[in-house]
Amino acid sequence: MSARVEPLRPIITTEQLQKRVKELGRQISDDYKGQTIQMLAVLENAFIFVADLVRAVEVPVVCQFVKPKYSRPQAGSGSDVMEIFFSHEPDIKGQHIVLVEGLVHSGITTDFLMGDLRSRGAASVKLATLLDRQSARRVPLQPDYFGFLVDEAFVVGYGLGAPEQTNRNLPYLAAQPR
Fold first, then answer.
1. What digits encode the pLDDT tens for the residues 5-17?
2. β-strands 9-12, 81-86: how paired?
């Protein structure tokens, strides 16, 4: 007997996503009027969001990418190891940075990245996330710009999902049973 596959449950429509991304683009444009910003997108979950957000922003934007890579701990080490790779080493000294996430969960990786960007001499570092799961936060972190609050265990669509799974290409967001 095969396992029953639960259907996806839509939670945020394509229209809601498009409307909110345009609002965020206007807000960011107003905050950075007359300046150039660097958007640093965290892969993979932010790739569709950042593409739409960059088009909605009306100030000059430089777009770059960073990819966190988690490694399993060696026996006896006690914790996971994280490596973070930039598409190329960004020159951010004196620049205004908007870190773009698809989903902020615990906030640990995001908090680390924001601290690293500040230590590299960024003029300012702000956080934009499509989804904010505040109930899972493990560090005191508040996004400067966010699309929607969510509590669902696993969200797919609009670029979000696990690397080995399908449904990143959905034009809306859905809760997926795990």
1. 568 899 999 999 9
2. unpaired
Instruction: State which residues form the domain around 49.
Output: 9-68+81-175
**pLDDT tens per residue, range 26-39:** 999 999 999 999 99
Assign residue 168 the CATH number of its domain: 3.40.50.2020
Q: Quick check: is 36 in a domain?
A: yes
If you write DSSP's letter for every residue of the chain in order, what string do you get? -PPPPPPPEEEE-HHHHHHHHHHHHHHHHHHTTTS-EEEEEETTTTHHHHHHHHHH--S-EEEEEEEEEEEPPPTT--S-EEEEEESS----TT-EEEEEEEEESS-HHHHHHHHHHHHTT-SEEEEEEEEE-GGG--S----SEEEEE---S-EEBTTBS-TTSS-TT-SSEEE---
The residues near 103 (Cβ < 8 Å, ≥ 6 apart) are: 45, 129, 130, 131, 132, 133, 150, 155, 160
Is residue 96 within 8 Å of 32, Cβ to Cβ?
yes
Give a yes or no: residue 3 inside a domain.
Answer: no
Looking at the domain assignment, is residue 146 inside a domain? Answer: yes
- The total of structural domains in the chain comes to 1
CA atoms within 13 A on the CB side of 175: 7
64 forms beta bridges with: 40
pTM of the model: 0.87
